[in-house]
Each structure stands twice: as structure tokens, then as C-alpha cells.
Fold this protein.
Amino acid sequence: MSNDYTQLRREYLASPLSRDQLDTNPVEQFRKWMEVATDAAPDDATSMTLATADSSGMPSARIVLLKHFGEEGFAWYTDFSSAKGAELEQNPQAALLFYWYGLERQVRIQGRVERLPVSQGEKYFNERPLGSRLSAAASHQSEVIESRQALEAAVDKLQQQHSDGQVPHPERWGGYCLKPTAFEFWQGRESRLHDRFRYTLVDGSWQIDRLQP
């Protein structure tokens, strides 16, 4: 292969992770790590990879932003008619991945995905900046468009139609919530001997196991 990166290496030296440091509740453990991550790099801390798959099993992944989380699950907002929306209709299971570079930490979350209530999506839509509302309403996410100019023209037209800033909430736009069935907390360690702990939901309780790196 002409492009060889086998000599690019780094050590993971930030901190260890032991069983006695973990909360028995993975949502609470995630909250603790998220607080550290938002303090360290607030602009990127809520970025997460969302992995979905269609009915044939073909996977796809993209970065989205976590908007809120709790015992009820992990939520983000998007266009229901997008590629990920179509895949979630076919296969309502997904995985989330958070990677916090400076902290040398990852969190993986798996579960089933449900739509949030329409009222919740509408509320969040109306709280967004005007430019974000116009973009969401004008763009039919993942559909082909002939040019950037055509996209910008659609936004301009919508802005003229709603010069008062009251952009209607599109029915195709709203939130999803992933309800977790498994978590993994990963802490980088020296010589690739990483610390990994998996939480698995068993009969309504969380079982914690250490995994080999």
C-alpha cells in the first residue's frame, strides 16, 4: 500500500480506570465523564458518532450532537426523512460512540431507538437560532440538490416568507431517543493495555464486567 501510517504511534497516559471508580449506574457514570469532557473541551464534548444499519444490515455512521440525556435515554434531533431516519425506520437499533481525545476516553452505548414526542421536537426547534431553523426547514436532508446556490435560494425564500422570524416547525423534523441496553467505558492506558468496563442490562439491573483490551 502506498499510504502507510504504521509508524504513527502514541501512548495513552492520562489516567487509569478501576472497578471501584465506577458508579453502579452507567447513566450516572456517563454524567460524570461528560462533566469532565465539557470542562476540558466544551465545543466538542457532545459530538457523538451515531451508527445505524438498514434492513439488509448495511451500516452507516455520522457525527451528530447529543442534546439531552438521562435515565430515559440519549437524545438528538434531525430530519426524519434523512438517510439515518430511513434506516431507523427499517431497523430501530443503533449505537453511539463518544471519543474525548484529550482525556483518552471513549464511551460506547447500544440500544433501541424511538422518536421523541412531536411536542418535544417542536419545543426544541423553536428554541434554536433563526439560521438553524431556516436551514432545517429549507433542507430536505440527504436528498440530491443541483447546487449550493439552489440550497441558499431555498433558505432565502423561506426567510422572506417568514420575515417575522416565526419559522413553522416542519413535521419531518424532530427528535430520537436511544434507550440503552449496554454501555462500555474505555480509558486509554500505556502499551495499549487499556481499561474497559461493560455494563449490560440483565433482568432490569446493570451487570459490570471488565473486558480485555
